[in-house]
Amino acid sequence: GFCFAFRSSDALVRADVSLKGGFATADLSACEALPPNAGNDAVIALAKIVGRRAQAHLFEARSAHEPAIKRLTAIRPGLRITRTLTAFDAIVWSIIGQQISLPFAYQLLRELVEMIGEVAPGGLRAMPLAHDVAQLDESALINVKFSRAKASYLVGIARQVSSGELDLVAAEEN
């Protein structure tokens, strides 16, 4: 299994997921009382993470016209790529992962999450929200090995999201 943290209403919730026989179950915990909609929110979050809404069959259908895709889909038919919970999480990953190795990208992400990620039960940390990243001074990121450009892009986009200049909620709905 695996665990992840997500927000349900204003509460940070930890989900410990077990996979067995093609089914997933999750034990939910929060530092405060679980919101009434936590179970439904967990199902939505889990579906996003495991790519349940992704239409693998449409991707695989392209393989008839694209040999590179055909080689990939022949190995693992129905494979779904893990995803992020929010559009902001995806942007964070795309900025951090530009032109560096995957291990270094994970190191930078870990530094960011440990710096300002909210703590869920059991010490698990959630991805930081845009308004938390927007409050950072770029030098704090540079001090943990972010390039000046990455620090500037990350804080800049977070400020646009937190100010409402960039509406990612509308983008996620489309």
Helix content: 40-55%
- Estimate the strand proportion: 5-15%
Which strand order does the major sheet show? 1-2-3
- Catalogue the unreliable spans: none
What does this structure look like?
This protein is α+β, with helices and mostly antiparallel strands and 174 residues long. Helix content is 48%, strand content 14%. The chain is built from 9 helices and 3 strands; from the N terminus they run βββααααααααα. It has a 3-stranded antiparallel β-sheet with strand order 1-2-3. α4 runs antiparallel to α8 (148-163). The longest helix has 16 residues, at 148-163. It is globular and about 50 Å long. The two termini are 31 Å apart. The mean pLDDT is 86.
For the structure shown, list the relevant keywords:
alpha+beta, 48% helix, globular
In short:
This protein has about 170 residues and is an alpha+beta fold. It has helices spanning about 40-50, 55-60, 65-75, 85-95, 100-115, 130-135, 140, 150-165, 170-174, and strands at about 1-10, 10-20, 25-30.
Compile the SSE list and pairings.
Blueprint lengths: L1 E7 L2 E10 L2 E8 L7 H12 L6 H6 L5 H9 L11 H10 L5 H15 L13 H5 L3 H5 L5 H16 L4 H6 L1
Antiparallel strand pairs: 1-2, 2-3
